[in-house]
Specification:
The protein is an alpha/beta fold and 350 residues long. It has a single domain, classed as SGNH hydrolase (Rossmann fold), CATH 3.40.50.1110. The chain is 46% helix and 7% strand. A 5-stranded parallel beta sheet has the order 2-1-3-4-5, sandwiched between helices. It is globular and about 60 Å long. The N terminus is likely disordered.
Length: 350
Amino acid sequence: MAYIYIAWLLFSQILLQVARHEAKVPAIIVFGDSTVDSGNNNQISTLLKSNFKPYGRDFAGGQPTGRFSNSRVPPDFISEAFGLKPLVPAYLDPKYGISDFATGVCFASAGTGYDNATSDVLNVIPLWKEVEYYKEYQAKLRAHIGHHKAREILTEALYVISLGTNDFLENYYLLPKRQVEYTVQQYQDFLIGIAEKFMRELYALGVRKISLTGLPPMGCLPLERTINLLGHHDCTEEYNSVAVEFNVKLKNMVAKVNRELPGYRILLTEKVYQLVYQMIKTPSQFGFDVTEKACCSTGTFEMSYLCSEKSPFTCRDANKYVFWDAFHPTEKTNKILSDYLIPDLLKLFN
């Protein structure tokens, strides 16, 4: 199995090298949560930040950027694979302006979800506000390069969207409000309704190319394993089952919207679940040693400010770990996931 994976990875790298010279996507535009946030939370009043060390310690220059990783996140790798810049800047980052955002911009906010109530938990940017920022960006882009060129970029750009995990782990399973209102299956349907409305709103704004990520095996995140005392700190399979069910519903929604809206191409990257689960269950195939704990601090419950640079427990080599903190992947995991998805993205969107 390991040999097959290595051969596939080499083949995908060849495809990427060829594609870099042929890519037709003019920009990568990002919506979502901490899996794709490149620093927007740095600029808002929230406890959920990562603009301090050890975050970003393996980034160029060893500087934290607000990405919840030791270095880059998936949109960065996707942008580079399409022949664009190797980093997608955060929209709220004052170091960047509209000329930087013309080839890629990130509106994502760590801690957010489809549900507005999820963003309220840690006072982060709700999804509706991400859309408002996008509308503002559209107007700035038109003023910067003209309506015709702006329309071309906005229509041909690839939109990368990653949402949903926080809705369950930060909101539904942690707080009582949604549990009183919905069963977990009803809450899934509630979120799918919001997701469909979001997809249709983007279409009305001129968006045509979307990579939408489904839920990972969220019961296998180190934090969930830490609190799974009765399960001997194994994966919480109840949460994984919910993720699988949600992904099926998301797939059906995507098929419906693709069918009903002419020219719309939404690719649901549902394979993320299987790949992450495989990394966790057979880590040696991917060059990992540790899956049940994260690199940062004790690796059991820490993230954001609990990931202190002063902790003596933080690992020396993050490449041996699937997870960087108790909730987020290492750069190596992000790259493996991106390399797995990019050939499909290049095939569909070039």
